[in-house]
Amino acid sequence: MNPRFYLVGLRATGKSTVGRLLAKRLNWAFFDTDEEVERRTGLTIREVFSQKGEAVFRELESEVLLSMSRQTPAVIATGGGIVLSESNRQLLKQTGRVLWLHAPPAILWQRMQADPTTSSRRPNLAAGGVAELESLAQARTPLYEEVAHEDFDTSSRIPEAIVEEIVNRCRISY
Ligand code: S3P
Predict the structure, then answer these.
(1) 20, 43, 108, 144: which is deepest, by most CB within 10 A?
(2) Element housing 9 (H / E)
(3) Ligand 1 centre and the CA of 80: distance in Å?
(4) Is the separation of the CB atoms in 122 and 46 below 8 Å?
(5) Ligand 1 atom nearest 11 alpha carbon
(6) CB atoms within 10 A of CB 8
């Protein structure tokens, strides 16, 4: 297997928090596609969307993913919409172990409301509250399922416990 884990899932599923802890636990490098887009453009993701548009953001996101797919050993947290592109999905599946983090939309909504800093840096994907998150989950679940090698319910456990489950489960399965 490639010594590379990708974390995918909707916003607020814990990708960056769990990813950082997992990287520390394994002593691997940690990367975050959103952070790298922000670093390269000097803009927040929200500004990239408003000033350049979503299509430009998606192109940048794919470029960043491609460059990160050459890093090893690495844990890579991705933006929630990374799976919208067919070529990103192929790249994810072929170059690492893909871990899908998920939780019910009501829980994601609570977490988003409790984290105004992250929300202020992101475009309003769920301005319509839980209902909008539910429809995003419905639209994207088949895409996450398509790429995921393993999936983890993050609704009721602390990030450290999820990291332990990842380490144990992934050791067993390969
Ligand atoms: C997006 C999720 C965001 C960010 C952008 C688009 C999406 O990342 O990439 O705002 O389409 O779901 P997080 O999942 O890290 O919030």
Answers:
(1) 108
(2) none
(3) 4
(4) yes
(5) 14
(6) 28
> In 3D, which of 97, 105, 52 has the Cα closest to residue 80?
105
Supply the pTM of this predicted model.
Answer: 0.95
Q: Which two tokens stand for residue 7?
A: 């974390």
Kindly report the protein residue whose alpha carbon is nearest to atom 16 of ligand 1. Answer: 11
pLDDT of residue 1: 60
Query: Under a CB-based contact definition with an 8 Å cutoff, are residues 9 and 144 in contact?
Result: yes
Question: Residue 78, exposed/middle/buried by CB under 10 A (0-12, 13-18, 19+)?
Answer: buried
Q: Which ligand 1 atom is nearest residue 46's CA?
A: 10
User: Does the beta carbon of 89 sit less than 6 angstroms from any atom of ligand 1?
Assistant: no
First to last CA, the chain: 8
What is the set of domains in the chain, with CATH numbers?
4-169 (3.40.50.300)
pLDDT > 70: percent of the chain: 96
- At 29-47, the pLDDT tens digits run 999 999 999 999 999 999 9
Ligand 1 contacts CB of residue 81 (under 6 A): yes
